[in-house]
Amino acid sequence: MAKSTASQKSLYSNHFVRYTSSRAFFNSPAINDNKPSSVLKSRARFNKFVRNQCRIGFKSVDDANILFHEMIQMQPVPSLSYFTQVVAAIARMKHYEAAISVIEEMEFLEILDPDVHILSVLINCYCHLNRVDLGFSVLGRVLKLGYEVDVALFTTLIKGLIGDNQMGLAVELFKNMLEQGIHPNSITCGTIINGLCKMGNTNAAIQLVKKMKNGRMEVGDVVYSMIIDSLCKDGMVTEAFRLFEKLILGTSKPNVGMYNSMIRGLCNTNRWKEGMEVFEKIPNPDVQTYTILVDSLCKEGEVEKAAKMVELMIQKAVKPDVVTYSALVDGYCLQGRLHEAEKVVDSMISNECNPNAHTYNILINGYCKKKRTDDALKVFDKMSQRGLIANTITYTTLIHGYCLSRQPSVALHFLKKMQSCGQHPDIVTYSILLDGLFKNNYHKKAMNLFQEMKESKLDLDVVVYGILINGLCKARELESAKNVFHGLESNGINPNTRIFNILIDGLFKGGLEDEAIMLFQEMVESGYCSPDGCTYNIVIQGLVCNNNGKRAIEFVDEMVGKGFSADASTAEILLGVSTDRNLDQSPFVLNSLSTSNTNNITFHN
């Protein structure tokens, strides 16, 4: 690496500063087979040993440290390049902190002055530890020593900035790199394009690709794959398809990754015909290609076609993996065909493809949705027998199933079981159980659970409080429900439309019409939460049920004026009281109230 120029030092000050404002070794199993006594007969043989050991890798970071400490005791010590090889080998093992410690020890012992190569390893380690600020500090040392920054070091820092969610600075550094006359390689461009795509800035990534092509830089398949995949994920499938077709017609042919991204994008937007046409053009579809199609077909309810796709891939000598089979299991479960789903799992095992926890979770969920908790429990037991550990999703699914099948005591048992097994219930687990306890009239246990949730330091969100207020309203504990509602702000939560609707409905059903209307007005005046169609339907139904048909009609007028419609329940209630004189005298006419069209009811003047 050449000495640094004045412009590069300026680059550092303008950009980077702103961003940052022993012989026991021979008993080691790593070398026992290498006859260390003969290794030490000559320095050349020892150096060769170090090179080979670093090339093949160490069995553990401890072995690398033992070698390092043996090296620093030698007289004279090996040259810096051998220390750099050891440090780089430690970094390749992803023991970045250990690599940094070795470099720091070298500097502390003043063994050898670090050069640009070992400092580059140090920068790489800091970037992998999300301490790119320290990476830039080391860069300052590189420039101070008079070395130039090459493309590899720029790429490392760009990658570090992206990993630190500093995409703007990464792009700026990339531009500065170009200004310094340093030409990015395919890895640099791939890194910055990948970052832009992951940030959802696909247009900027495309512009960069155009600049690369104008600069006669080679744009590899990996870069095009990123662009196509990102366009599809952004919903820009037509644009992705245009680019894909250009690649087919051009000199650069799509790889299987591009085909897979394109097929996934087309299937996700229901462009099945084009998706299958792309599939038929793939020279050698891989397991991911088939899995994308199997999963998409299952989600569309075409499970028979999905099963045939699995048969086809087996005929083509492409072995389905656990993801493929799990997608098919899910397809059968979505249709309630649980016996067929079980047969797929059996087929997996017979084909030497082991189901994982996700596979069993899908099957357990299928049984739980059908309230077949006994069968779900059998699957849970099979899972344990195969040595798989039930995770939070497994237990949450079972808890939900037992709540649905009106067995809240068993659901509580599984909460305790998962905790005793070292699995931590998350906010979803607690929310499902809280809702299930209230719906099964286990109000006291529900309140005890809510207290446990508060003590567990979980971040209780608006969904949890909605469940709590709804449960209290259903139990006619309206004072408690109101207290919880009025305490939301102190808990850092603004009530959403659903929570307002729940409490307004509860107040009406509790005969507190005036309070319900006052809460409706509070909702209107809140500035952050406006009434929706559901709100108006609740108010209208509440007023009619409280024998206030005249006022209900006023809200019908307001509802229509805001573009909302009556739902079937509201229409039925209004029809039931249509002979009331208040309604007869109303200037409003209830239109389109046929039993075949009660889901789309509108009121007209």
From TrEMBL:
Stretches that traverse the bilayer: none
Keyword vocabulary terms for this entry: Repeat
Q: Which InterPro entries match?
A: PPR/CCM1_RNA-binding (IPR051222), PPR_rpt (IPR002885), TPR-like_helical_dom_sf (IPR011990)
Q: Where are the PPR repeats?
A: 115-149, 150-184, 185-219, 220-254, 255-285, 286-320, 321-355, 356-390, 391-425, 426-460, 461-495, 496-530, 532-566
Cited PROSITE patterns: PPR (PS51375)
Name recorded for this polypeptide: Uncharacterized protein
Q: What is the lineage of its organism?
A: Eukaryota, Viridiplantae, Streptophyta, Embryophyta, Tracheophyta
